[in-house]
Structure formats: structure tokens, C-alpha cells
Amino acid sequence: MLQTAMMLFRTSLLRFVGIVLAASLTILSVFPAYADEANKGSDSAQIMKDFNQQHVDAERAKSITDKDKHRIMFLLGMVLILLVLVTGGLGIAMGVYGKPVFVAHMIFAGLSTTLALVHAIVGIVWFYPF
To answer: Where are the domains of the chain?
Structure first.
């Protein structure tokens, strides 16, 4: 064993690296041939189709169903009706009974108008047939 170690150390480092490099190049030259055959089997159009399908599936998972859209519109409508009734009640209390609720009446009127605009915009965007 000592003689084998001495023989390895007698060869120059450059010669040893050359032998290792030549051996690794012969082994590595076989792999690209297999990789080339694997690429022929997979078509780039198929890869793009799979990628687009994955994107469509992700978008579909994030989308809201029509039933949920109707439920959201119903809840917006209920809150809007409640705000309009409160605004009307405050207006009647202020006008007929002389209560000092002008600021509250104006706040609820602003909220009612804002929610009415939101309800209309959401309804047009979700349900208007383009």
C-alpha cells in the first residue's frame, strides 16, 4: 500500500488532473445525448398549453361564483335600505319635530349616497352583459 501511495505521488499533479479531466469528459459526453432525446419527446407547445391551463385554473379558483355575487349584492341592498330609512327618519325628526339631528342626518345621507353608488357600480360591473 505504501508503494501505491508513493507511485501516485510520483506522477505530476498536472498529469493526474489531465487523466481525471479526460475520464470525466468521456462520461459527461454521454449525458447530452440522453437529454436531447428527452427534449424531442416534450413539445414546447405542450409546455405552453400546460402553463396556460395552470393559469386558468388559478384564476378560476380566485373568481367569485354568481351565487356569491348575488348574495353580496343582496347584503349591500339591505344595508342601503337600512341607511335610507335611518336618513329618512332623521329628516322627519328634524323637519317635523324640530330635533337637532342635522349633522347625523347629513352623515347618513352621505353614507346612503356612497353605498348607492357602490351598489350601482358593482351591479353594472358584475351583471351587465358586455
So the answer is: 64-125
